[in-house]
Design a protein that fits this description.
51 residues, mainly alpha, 2 helices, 31% helix
Amino acid sequence: MEQLIGDCRQMAAHWHMPSGERTSAAPAGLHGITVPPASAHVVAGMVEFGD
């Protein structure tokens, strides 16, 4: 998990937020999301998605 967090932090510099007023999006339920078997162990270890 620490490696995943570190990878995300490194990529964050590549994402740019436009300046100006921000609008919030309404939360939506996720439907039809699939996780490749090679990545399933990562998602299963997250409290939000496990069980």
